[in-house]
Amino acid sequence: MAVDITALWSFKDPAASELRFRQALATSTGDDRIILQTQIARTHGMRKQFELARQVLRELEPQLVTAGPEANARFWLEWGRTWASASHPKASSNHHDIIQARDAFERSLGLAKTARMDSLAIDAIHMLAFVDTDPPSQLKWAQLALDISLSSTQVAARAWEASIRNNLGMALTGLSRLPEALAQFEQALTLRRAAGKAGDVVVARWMVAWTLRLLNRVDEALGIQLDLEAIGESSKSPDPHVMDELAELYAALANDTRAAAYRARAKQLRGH
Description:
The protein is mainly alpha-helical. It has helices at residues 5-8, 14-25, 30-46, 50-60, 69-81, 95-114, 118-128, 135-151, 155-158, 161-174, 178-195, 198-214, 218-234, 240-252, 256-269.
């Protein structure tokens, strides 16, 4: 690609991202035009405008016959996301949507693997975990994604490792394999610290502390969550999820007064 779509994305602001993609589209040619429009479709999906996203993609479909593997892989990845993604309420999933999504993600994965587009292959695997939601399948997909990431020489594919290890940790937690889950969360935390993004480090530390609580290592978990509370207060961005955990931890310590106070704080932060 002549256009770096990563530089154009702001995942917290899909509307602004759409504008940047449309501006880039004005001077793009060939497969770049297809790829940019798949990202425009994705911005609609992130705003729950799923039919509008499909409309954008349907208009691209005739061009796929002569397009290269990246354009095709991205088309099928985004087509799948219009049927199953983090933007879809879980209750809205149905058999038809799951079939549509799985077929699209599998097509994207096949194209990406054949063309050695490792990051795209990992993205497709990541999305297959939205249609196969039982813990054994989640573990299978996360392990496959990790294998690709660790064996890849491509920077974008290696950058997935922390997220994949978090997903592995969640799958292992679902299988009640808590010591193994903790090991994955701790490795994810090490990677997040190396990357230097403070927000990601906070989330990774929360995951470690959450797992420590599940392992009944309450004092260790409490120390981390109290530190995260202090970070949130100092940055004026207190996190209700931290308050939830502190409530659980103080309940485990039979300190009902503090547990109730943190439950009330979490409720307040959520605005109800």
